[in-house]
Amino acid sequence: MAFLGTEGQVELADLGELADGPYANPELLPVPVAQRTWSLYNYAALWIGMSHNLVTYTLAASLIAAGMNPVQALLTIALGNLIVLVPMLLNSHAGTKYGIPFPVFARAFYGIRGANLAALLRALVACGWFGIQTWIGGEGISVVAGKLFGAWWTNASPLLGHPWTLWPAFALFWVIQMAIIWRGMDTLRRFENWAAPFVLVVFLAVLGWVIYRAHGVGDLLSQPAALGWGGRFWPVFWPSLMAMIAFWATLSLNMPDFTRFSRSQRGQAWGQVLGLPTTMTFFSLIAVMISSGTAIIYGKAIWDPTALAAKFSNPFVVTLGLVTLLVATVSVNVAANVVSPSYDFSNLAPRVISRRVGGLIAGVVGVALMPWKLVSDPHVYVFAWLDFYGGVLGAVAGVLVAGYWFVRRTRLDPADLYRRGGRYWFTAGWSLPAVAATLLGAVLAVGGANTAPGTAGPFPANGLIPLLKPLYSYSWAVGFGAGLVIYLLLAAPRRAGVAARPAVAPQQ
């Protein structure tokens, strides 16, 4: 069974103890070439499906609320996605070349044990996102049920601050997502293939209805910016741009989890280029135009698509709208927030935790984080949380890019990624340069975390470390740049394994 490339193929027998070793299981081993079936369309559909979600819909609203006009907001979103696409494509290459998931890829730089540091940083963020999206999806199910069952459902007695009927809706949505991840990656691929065009068509239909009812899209796109384009704009622009980058900073690390199934480098790369920045910007534009029309129809701009769906009186239309929102939420939540931690938790104890069990753990942790509280303050959620974890994950991305492209020149030894005592064992399974680069990069990026004057937040106004406060506005960029440079300075080529046995050829 061939695992790597079309030249110098590595057979399962050649990998020796990998399949039965303590650092491997079937999900963490390289994907055989014959099982790499994802095409350009699959990756474009994956990104279209992940971009069409409730949080994306409201991104422009959060920036407009900060004082930008729609044009400024859309430009910020587009630029953020173009920037994060760069490390995403750089890290994706290894997944297709070697057929390995993110936590195994990270072993080459952090060490076989140290990779758990990068994996868990990524996994915990994903669990938080999973819980939040699941809570939002549960609210959507509850709204649909309220339209069908009437006041007794909507006005149910409270439980933990919410109608008790909301909790079974939340549980149902959780079960649906767990079922998809339990069935495997091929089920996810098929789901994304039809979910992506379905969601897009429905939202375009809603846009057409809004334009018809409003006799145009109103003047929202041309409204002046409260901040202008001068000195008041830039202090808001930079942290907002970092937040937009951080929105997909998680996927910039773990895209090998998906590109390991690609037929070719060209297919996964072009699929992502065509799918991510274009869809995020276009979907945000649709949100702006729909909200502009609702300001004319209802006298107030409605940024919450769930609230907009509830405005319709026809039960079928309401159900179709909210089912679309649920499909969109499942699409992003399973792909972005369950697949990665399922591999990450599996990497902790490969012989005990399978991908399925890892996904279940991610689901449980997501609930344990109490997402109903995480979303209680949108300002803290979007700006404090996004900017903070974006800076931390930026440092991890810098280490990965520096190690794979500059130190190792894309050459890895697949067998040693699973072998105790091999070239990726470093110091008792840990790479001290990678750990130091990550910690120092993260401190530089988020050490100055602060709460803007006049707003609530978890950080002191002068920053956690006042000297680093100016850097926090550029958190992801600082983390990425610092992680990359520090790792390059600390990681000697000999320790990195450049002078290694011949590397396998990439899959073309």
UniProtKB/TrEMBL annotation:
Keywords: Membrane, Transmembrane, Transmembrane helix
NCBIfam families: ncs1
InterPro entries reported in the protein's UniProt record: NCS1 (IPR012681), Pur-cyt_permease (IPR001248), Uracil/uridine/allantoin_perm (IPR045225)
UniProt similarity note: Belongs to the purine-cytosine permease (2.A.39) family.
Membrane topology: Multi-pass membrane protein
Location in the cell: Membrane
One GO cellular component term: plasma membrane
Pfam families: Transp_cyt_pur
Organism of this sequence: Actinocrinis puniceicyclus
Recorded superkingdom: Bacteria
Protein name per the record: NCS1 family nucleobase:cation symporter-1
UniProt cross-references to PANTHER family, sorted A to Z: NCS1 FAMILY PURINE/PYRIMIDINE TRANSPORTER, PURINE-URACIL PERMEASE NCS1
